[in-house]
Amino acid sequence: MSLCRYLPVPSDRMGIIWSLLSVKDSIILEYGPAGTTHFSMGLYGALGVECQQRLFTTHMNEDDVVMGDVTRLEEAIIELDKSYEPKVIFVVASSISAVIGTDIKGVCNYMQQEVKAKLVAFEQGGFRGDYSVGLTEVYKLLVNNLPGQERNAKKKTYNIIGASMGSYRAASDVWELQNLMREAFGYEMHTCLCHETSVAEIGDIGAAEINLVMRQEGLPAAGLLKNKFAVPFVFSAPYGYAATLAWLEEVGKVLGQAPDSKLCARLRLKAGNAASLKMYAMMMGRKKMPQAAVLGEYDLVKGLSAFLGSVGINVKHKVCSHSLKSIIEAEPDIQYFAVEKDKIDILKNLRQTLVLADDVSNRLCDSSNVVLRVSAPFIDGAQIATHLPLLGEKGTDFLLETVEAYYQTLA
Prior knowledge:
Layout: H1 12-20, E1 23-24, E2 26-31, H2 34-46, E3 55-57, H3 62-67, H4 71-84, E4 88-93, H5 95-99, H6 104-111, E5 118-122, H7 131-145, E6 157-161, H8 170-185, E7 188-193, E8 197-198, H9 199-203, E9 210-213, H10 219-229, E10 233-235, H11 241-255, H12 261-275, H13 277-283, E11 291-296, H14 298-310, E12 314-320, E13 334-335, H15 340-348, E14 354-357, H16 359-363, E15 370-373, H17 392-410
Parallel strand pairs: 1-8, 2-3, 2-4, 4-5, 6-7, 6-9, 9-10, 11-12, 11-14, 12-13, 14-15
Helix pairs in contact: 1-7, 7-10, 8-17, 11-12
C-alpha cells in the first residue's frame, strides 16, 4: 500500500458495515477494539447512515489477541440478544481479529443454539480489498442467509440491488428509480440492497417480479436470486435521457409491459434537445474543444462519460475511485490509480475542463475549470437532500445545468 496524502479508499470491512447498518431489526457486532468502531461511526454518520443502538463492539484486550480468547465475543452475542431482541446479529471481524485468524463463523455456529437471533458472520477484516469487494460480499451473504426457500410472489413489485450508502446521492438515486418505475409501469419497490430495508424485506426478497441492479457489485447477488427464485434482472445505471429511455424499454421487455408513452415522449424530446449541444461544441472550433474528467465509482464514471459524450464533451480522463478487482470486463479507458500521486498530477494539470469528481479532487483543480461534486468523499458541506439524484431524468436535468455553465466559460 502506497502513502496516501489525502483520504484513503475505505476497506471491504467499511463497505460491509455501512451496508448492514441499513438493515432494520438487526444489530452489527464488531469483534475488535473500541477505537476502530468509534472512528468508523464518524464516517457512517457523514454518509447519512443511522448508527444509534445498531453498532456495537466487544472491546478486545491484549489477552484476547495473544491467547485467542473469544469469551468477550460469546458474552456480547448473548447480551445483545437478550437486551435488544434483534432478528439478526451480524458478527463482523475487525482488522485485529482478522489478523489473528479468529474463526468468527465457527463461533457463530456453536453460539446459534444459545440465542434467538439469527447469527450471520462476516470474516472480512479489511484485507481482502477495498469497499467495492466488501459490497459484493455483503450482497451475496445477505441473499444467501436471510431469504427463505419459498417464493411468495408479489405482483407489481421490484427489488433494487447495489444501492450503496457509501455512494454520493445514493438515497436520491433510489428515489429517482422509484419515481421512474411508478410512472412508467405502476410498480413499487419491495426491497433495496442496501438502503432503508429490513430483515423481513430481505427475507422475502424473492417475491418481486424483477431485480434492478444498479452497479456491478450487485451482479453476483442478482445471479443467486435468479437461480434460487427465477427472478430476472436488468443491469444498468441510467445516466442521461437516452440511457434512461433505453433502460425503461429494457425493463419493459422483461416485464412484458411497454413503459408509459407520455414519459417516453418526454425523454425523447429532452434527449433531442440535449444532443443539440453537440452542434454548439463543433461551432466553437478546435481551439476550445470541450473536455471533461470524471472521477468516481466505476458505474458512475462509465455512465456519466457516455452522457457527456452525447452532449459533445470528450471525456479525457476516466478515473475509478476504487480498484477494478470486482469489475467484470472493465472498459480499458477507465483507470484506477493505486498510487495517489498519479491521480493528483492529472488533476493539477487540468485547464478549462469540466471536472465531475469528489471534493478532494475538485480542490486540486485550478480556477479555470468548472467542477461539480458527483462522488465521495464529500468534505465541503453535508449530504442532506434525498430528492437530488444524479441518474435518471431528474439527475440529467441537474447535470445539464453544469454542462451549460461550462459551455459558457468557453464561449
